[in-house]
Specification:
Blueprint: H1 2-5, H2 17-25, H3 29-40, E1 44-48, H4 54-64, E2 70-73, H5 80-94, E3 98-100, H6 106-113, H7 121-143, E4 147-149, E5 166-169, E6 172-175, H8 183-193
Parallel strand pairs: 1-2, 1-4, 2-3, 4-6
Antiparallel strand pairs: 5-6
Helix pairs in contact: 3-4
Length: 247
Amino acid sequence: MNQVMSTIRRPSFDIDVEALNGELEGLDAGSRVALLAERFGNRVMATTSFGVQAAVMLQLLKEHAPEIPIVFIDTGYLFPETYRYGAMLEEQVGFEAKVYSPLVTAARQEALYGKQWEGSDEESDHYARIHKIEPMNRALQELGADIWISGLRRAQSSSRSERAVAERQAKTLKVYPIIDWDDAQVDRYMIGKGLPRHPLGAADYVTMGDWHSTNPGQKSARESTRFNGEKYECGLHLSSGDQDFQI
């Protein structure tokens, strides 16, 4: 681990985030993606969770910046339907995700630490570091990226309602091209582009994560469908607080 951490690419922080937000706010989602690709080139990467709205960002990236690498963090605890949906999207949209997995298998994690997602906040945070934060940090390092495109939206939760289009998180600049889309706009885009739905959408899942911390529910009560309603963010979209991590 220490060897990996020593190779972290330290960004120059040469981006005026306030000025960038001023530009991005006036653009549509596709133009936001295109601007990032044109201006920052190989400093940019994107992620997908193959969740209920993942097809939207994947299609936008394909149309406006197909050269941006797309990372999939495979925690080892996703729904079987999520893996199959991801394979379907890769084929239909026409891309291949770069898969990053934890350095420890799910079986070894449980043998050593137990089902930490059922434990204390400290145990839950440890689980997030192993299964989400470390693989994501490794992806940023290996791809040489310090700008991360994500499909977060303000309408998804109270913890996201005040986010700007672009923001700093630790050593990374995060940009959310569809941050201002509501659920209706997501639905219209998916229908208009003929994008397939996540199969668990028909079972009333309105958000998607690990099988052990995601439950079906209503869009109006979306925050209650993750981690038994105790929190919504999985760990990736909150600073790790560790100086060795870019996120």
